[in-house]
Design goal:
Layout (H helix, E strand, L loop, with lengths): L1 H18 L12 E10 L2 E15 L7 E8 L2 E8 L5 E8 L28 H4 L5 H6 L2 H13 L7 H10 L1
Antiparallel strand pairs: 1-2, 1-5, 2-3, 3-4
Length: about 170
């Protein structure tokens, strides 16, 4: 019985790992993020950006990792919760990082104007946003990229010799 349970747990973990994205952005509470999401309207598909403050992160090590993002739109507070490993979330970009001491910033809901500002913390945006764009990774597998590079390497390249440059300068 116990052996059966451990085999099932291992199988469940393997299935969960297959659905997880490889490169996700390091997102924390207090970050200002820009989340790009696919939206289907009938037969059409488009992308939409949602930029706001991350007020909560949950289960960051799991395949059910979520972030709650809040922004003010036309004077009304709007909150959206995003599943980070969802195929509909194409990109998460951290634009600003702030100093906070909590994971759940519910007190930000009552704040407006200057009181809603958080203290900025310097961070390296290139290393934080290092995760590659998910659409590009899905569209072009790595095997095809190597074939393309091999084809370009086989094609003859023009070499520019110093004599050619001197001859051209002399003609002008």
């Amino acid at each position: 019985m116990i052996k059966y349970i451990s085999v099932m747990q291992d199988t469940i973990k393997k299935v969960e790992q297959s659905y997880m994205k490889k490169n996700i952005t390091d997102v924390r509470s207090g970050d200002t993020v820009k989340v790009t999401q696919k939206i289907k309207e009938g037969s059409k598909e488009r992308t939409q950006d949602f930029e706001g403050l991350v007020i909560r992160t949950r289960r960051m090590g799991s395949h059910t990792a979520t972030i709650a993002v809040r922004k003010i739109a036309s004077g009304v507070g709007v909150e959206k919760t995003f599943l980070l490993h969802s195929p509909l979330v194409t990109k998460v970009e951290v634009t600003k990082r702030s100093k906070v001491r909590r994971n759940y910033l519910s007190y930000m809901r009552e704040r407006t104007g200057k009181s809603s500002r958080l203290a900025n913390v310097g961070f390296d945006s290139d290393s934080v946003n290092a995760g590659e764009d998910i659409e590009e990774a899905v569209e072009e597998p790595k095997e095809e990229k190597t074939e393309k590079t091999e084809k370009t390497e086989d094609s003859p390249k023009e070499e520019i010799k110093p004599e050619d440059v001197k001859a051209k300068e002399g003609k002008e």
